[in-house]
Amino acid sequence: MNPKIADKVATTVLYIISGIIIIILASLLGYILFQGVPHISWHFLTSPAQSFEAGGGIGIQLFNSFYLLLLAMLISTPISLGAGIYLSEYAKKNWLTDVIRTSIEILSSLPSVVVGLFGFLIFVLQFKFGFSILSGALALTVFNLPLLTRNVEDSLRGVGNEQREAGLALGLSRWETVLHVVMPEALPGIITGMILGAGRVFGEAAALIYTAGQSAPALDFTNWNPANIASPLNPFRPAETLAVHIWKINSEGIQPDAVAVSAGASAVLVIAVLIFNVGARYFGNRLFKKMTAA
C-alpha cells in the first residue's frame, strides 16, 4: 500500500475511534445532566435528606463531601510534596528508590474498595476512630497519596537541569535551589495535579462506605465548636458523602422520590467534578503563562 494512503487510513481510523469515545462520554454526561439538572434547586442543595418521605435534599451530604475533601487534601498535600521532592531531587538511583517507585505504582492502582477495607481495619477498628470524617480522610489520603506524589515528582523532573545549575551557581544551597527555583517553575503542574486529585477524591464512594459511614446525623450550624458532636467541624462524627448517598439511595430505595433525588445528586456530583477538571486546566494555564512571562 502507498505510504500516503496508509497514513490517511490510519489517521482516519484514529479519528473515528476518538470520535466514538467522545460521543459515548458526552452522551453519558448529557444523560446524567439532562435527568438531574431539573431537580436541582436551592432547597435541594441546602435541605437535609429525608428517609421515608419526599422533598429531601443533599445539604448535609454536600457539606460532608467538601469538609472531608478539605481534610484529606490538608493531610496528603504536605506528605506528597515532601515525598515528591525527595524522589526527584535527593533520592539516589538504586534498588531502594526503585522499590519505592514500584510501590507507589502498585498503590496507585489499588481498587478503592480495598483501600476502604484497609481503612476500616486500621483507622476504624485499630485506631478506634470509628466511622468518622477523620477515618474517611485518612483512607482518602492512602487512596490519593501515590498519585499526588507521582504528580509532584514528574512536575519537578520536568524542570530543566539548567535551572538547578543556575541556582547553585548563584551560591544557593541545594534546598534553597529547590525551594526558590525549581518549585516555582514546577508549580503549575503541581497545582493542576492537586486539583485533579481533589476531583478524584470528591467523587469517591467505595473507600468511604467502610470508613466515613453511611449516616448523616443532623448538624447544628450555629455551633462550630469541633468538640461538639453535632458541630459540622467535628472530625469524629459519621459523615455520609454525596457519592455514598447516591449509592445508598439506589441500593435501599426507601424514599418515595428516590429516582429524583438520585438524579439530582448525580448531576451535582458530575458538575462538581467537571468544575475541578476545568479549574485545573484554567489555573494551570494561567500559572504557566505567568511563569513564562516572568
Largest beta-sheet characterization: none
* Share of residues in strands: under 5%
The CATH homology group name: MetI-like
Count every beta strand, where a strand is a DSSP E run of 2 or more residues.
0
Protein name: Phosphate transport system permease protein PstA
Family: Belongs to the binding-protein-dependent transport system permease family. CysTW subfamily.
GO biological process, one term: phosphate ion transmembrane transport
Membrane topology: Multi-pass membrane protein
Short characterization:
It holds the Pfam family BPD_transp_1. This protein is 73% helix and 0% strand.
Structure description:
This is Phosphate transport system permease protein PstA. Belongs to the binding-protein-dependent transport system permease family. CysTW subfamily. This protein has a single domain (39-290), classed as Orthogonal Bundle (MetI-like fold), CATH 1.10.3720. The protein has eleven helices and no strands. The chain has helices at residues 3-36, 42-46, 59-90, 95-108, 112-126, 133-157, 161-169, 174-202, 206-209, 242-252, 258-293. α1 (3-36) crosses α11 (258-293), α4 (95-108) crosses α6 and α5 (112-126) crosses α6 (133-157). The mean pLDDT is 86.
SSE topology:
Layout: H1 3-36, H2 42-46, H3 59-90, H4 95-108, H5 112-126, H6 133-157, H7 161-169, H8 174-202, H9 206-209, H10 242-252, H11 258-293
Q: What descriptive keywords fit this protein?
A:
single chain; 294 residues; mainly alpha; MetI-like fold; 11 helices; globular; cell membrane; Phosphate transport system permease protein PstA; transmembrane helix
